[in-house]
Design goal:
This protein is α+β, with helices and mostly antiparallel strands and about 325 residues long. The protein has two domains: about 20-35 and about 135-310, Up-down Bundle (Multidrug efflux transporter AcrB transmembrane fold); about 45-135, 2-Layer Sandwich (Alpha-Beta Plaits), CATH 3.30.70. The chain is built from nine helices and four strands, in the order ααβαββαβααααα. Strands 2-3-1-4 form a four-stranded antiparallel β-sheet. A hairpin with a 5-residue loop joins β2 (about 85-90) and β3 (about 95-100). α5 (about 135-165) runs antiparallel to α6 and α8 (about 240-270) runs antiparallel to α9.
Length: about 325
């Protein structure tokens, strides 16, 4: 069975547009409620940061690392399940927790609970206890740096594709990448409104990964279109060449996406709280990237080329002698 993407192009694009529109509406609602299009984690809003470490009794052999799962359980019991938790120090014998802004009494209670849980792995070192406030300016700087990285990535990809292919190829590849970003951000906006899903600095990392994955798939399809144009351009229309190229690369696109999703689903289910929504963002983005590469980027390029052909004036016919 051959896939005719050009003939059914309008429903494919309308489906993408509907999903993006729903996400934009969710972002607008979120902006009205929280002042931001997504539900931000403490990475962006600031909060309280606690660092605790265990005493190293023997240099070079301090003991077993802290079990971060136990720390997460305590944080969840105290109502801070969305906090950022990571192991620090030598041999993972310290823990850093960043959570919402806490009052003095709340800090003391949380510190006591953390000392109790990490005390199972050694003696807490009172000289290495650090408690400080992280202002929203740090989160704003992190967000600005992330958005700058995304912008530079788009620019670099556009320049690369313009040199490797042509300007219209590059333009519609960027449109497809914007589709993937908007779909992922929109779904997370919806999840933030419905079940309170927050985005942290890993979300920006996920966005960069998604555009890298998606553009690779688009390049494969565009490269096949260019090759077929050289071989069959005189005997086939551009629409036919796009359909042929998409079908030739379809199995490769689906298999690559599925093999990537297998590991991402495993991380989402068993990778712990820290990586759960990072993996979810990649799952959404990879599916969206495969869809936009197969359908959106190819369909828009074919429509544009058809429009160019129709708008090109035909040479006048030579009158018969």
């Amino acid at each position: 069975m051959k896939l005719d993407v050009i003939r059914h192009g309008r429903p494919y694009l309308l489906g993408s547009a509907a999903l993006i529109l729903a996400g934009i509406i969710a972002m607008i609602v979120s902006w009205q409620k929280t002042g931001l299009p997504l539900h931000p984690a403490v990475d962006f809003t600031g909060g309280t940061r606690l660092t605790l470490e265990l005493v190293c009794e023997s240099k070079g052999n301090c003991g077993k690392p802290i079990d971060i799962v136990s720390v997460r359980q305590v944080m969840a019991e105290k109502g801070y399940a969305n906090s950022t938790i990571q192991l620090v120090g030598q041999d993972g014998r310290g823990v850093l927790v960043q959570t919402i802004k806490l009052e003095t009494e709340q800090r003391a209670q949380l510190q006591k609970s953390l000392e109790s849980v990490i005390g199972k792995f050694g003696q807490p070192d009172p000289q290495k206890i650090q408690i400080d406030e992280v202002g929203p300016a740090v989160g704003g700087q992190l967000l600005t740096s992330g958005l700058l990285a995304l912008g530079l990535s788009f620019l670099g990809i556009a320049v690369y594709l313009a040199f490797r292919f042509q300007l219209d190829y590059a333009f519609f590849a960027i449109v497809a990448l914007l589709h993937d970003v908007l779909v992922t951000v929109g779904i997370f906006a919806i999840l933030g409104l419905t079940i309170g899903v927050e985005v942290d600095s890993l979300f920006i990392v996920a966005m960069l990964t998604i555009i890298g994955f998606s553009v690779n798939d688009t390049v494969v399809i565009y490269d096949r279109i260019r090759e077929n144009l050289k071989i069959m351009g005189d005997t086939h229309s551009f629409d036919d060449l796009v359909n042929i190229s998409v079908n030739q690369t379809l199995a490769r696109s689906i298999n690559t996406t599925l093999t990537s999703l297998l590991s991402l689903v495993a991380i989402f289910l068993f990778g712990g709280a820290t990586l759960k929504y990072f993996a979810l963002a990649l799952i959404i983005g990879f599916i969206s990237g495969a869809y936009s590469s197969i359908f959106n980027a190819s369909i828009l390029l074919a429509w544009w080329r058809d429009r160019q052909i129709k708008s090109t004036p035909k040479p006048p016919e030579i009158a018969e002698a």
